[in-house]
Amino acid sequence: MKIASQRVAIVGVGLIGGSLALAGKRAGAFAHVVGAGRSQANLDLALRTGIIDEAHTDVARAVRGADLVVLAAPADACVELLTAVAAAAGPACVLTDVASVKAPICSEAVRLGVGSRFVGAHPIAGGTATGAAAADASLFVGRTVVVTPGVAERAPRDTVARMWRAVGAEVLDLDADAHDGVVAVSSHLPQLLASSLCALVGGDQRQALFLRLCGAGFRDTTRIAAGDAAMWTAIARENRRHLLDAVDRFAELWARVRDALARGDDAEVRALIEEGAAMRRRLGA
Amino acid sequence: MKIASQRVAIVGVGLIGGSLALAGKRAGAFAHVVGAGRSQANLDLALRTGIIDEAHTDVARAVRGADLVVLAAPADACVELLTAVAAAAGPACVLTDVASVKAPICSEAVRLGVGSRFVGAHPIAGGTATGAAAADASLFVGRTVVVTPGVAERAPRDTVARMWRAVGAEVLDLDADAHDGVVAVSSHLPQLLASSLCALVGGDQRQALFLRLCGAGFRDTTRIAAGDAAMWTAIARENRRHLLDAVDRFAELWARVRDALARGDDAEVRALIEEGAAMRRRLGA
Fold this sequence. Notes:
Chain A is an alpha/beta fold. The first copy, chain A, has helices at residues 15-26, 40-48, 59-63, 75-88, 103-111, 154-166, 176-202, 207-213, 216-222, 229-238, 240-263, 266-283; strands at 5-11, 30-36, 54-56, 68-71, 94-97, 118-123, 144-148, 170-173. Helices cover 54% and strands 14% of the residues of chain A. The longest helix of chain A has 27 residues, at 176-202.
């Protein structure tokens, strides 16, 4: 495996950042990993378990001298951190991130004058566990990582693609805005639906009965609603335009379902359920 | 274990009916199980694997001489079958069902003059597999079975409760209408949300990209949408009034979410997500 970086700084050593550090080191893609984060306890854990080789709570210190910086904080924090990182990292340092909304950070990179060496990325992988303790070297194996290079040059694009391939992921190049439109429907809309369904039940006076009568369907459908509220709020804010469009499209469809039910139009209800079932079966288990 | 029935007829030897037959026999709650169904191949399989002891495609023949009849067909079919079953079964035969909507079949039992010995039931258990081949003797262990006795007498109520406890379930007595109101939100609404989300994606020209970018969140949220369209359409029809109410309440909440997003009111978006997360965490994994 060709090395992707002699010295990589990972800002945010959580599930994604920690897993990338671990997997990159094991694959031989990273020679030396510097971890940055706000929690000294989390950094200490990451150092102790060999996920990172060096730790700093000061981001500027962490990225100084790095060949590659990976922003692995929540979506809004990545955008905010980019200013400090762009200022402190050397002029040849490749910059990337893992945020699940891509247009805002890609625009910010251009605005800060680092667009030629900023390559946005979004690994379609995750879980509900958090912190360096959740790091898993196999997290990205077989997963798709969307890369949104924007105006980045060839060398930084190759570095980022090489890094993801080294940890077992498949790289898919996309326009940042196209990515954000798709994930608004494939990820952010389901999250908002699940949260809304749970909020509806949570506000119902029959809640104790609900908890007793919830089967596997409700559990599966709402699992994602137990996630981190701050993270999802940030995603909703960063991807507001696309998410609003998805929310409106869902509302239109929901009104059609409502009408079909109210009219007792079983054929239309069934057509909708069959259309959904056909799509879901194409996706597989 | 006290025996629940010397001769039980199970009409519909699918996942639920087959599992009940298997579990009841193993627990010693059923001495002799007669299976009824439209598919001879499915009945043959059930006979061959010892799930049932006798099989008939003619429902009247299957229930003749039974102490206990369990209707384990789809929700609408159970209501339709009750006329033939009530006519063919003896005057002391206990009648029950497993349909996921309870008020229609309980009303029908009263209308047919068998209300005193009809005890509606709904096991909160299931899966996507179908047919006798999917039968699982442990399907009901630790699960809640809602029993809606309506105007049934003590002895039939005891028989049905004994049967479910014998297969490991916990029995919860509820009014049929109260049950239908709760499952409209806890089961039928999630199904309709999942189907609608899949239909939205299925109708989008970016579908190939969606399939590539779908993560665990979308998969979990929509798993239920792959289910049997005929079964869900029947449930939606049978529980229309409660489901419409749930659909309308969801639409109201969705409009509030939409407004909060459009106004950029992060605090309200976050409050909703937190409310949902709190409810979901109470439910557990």
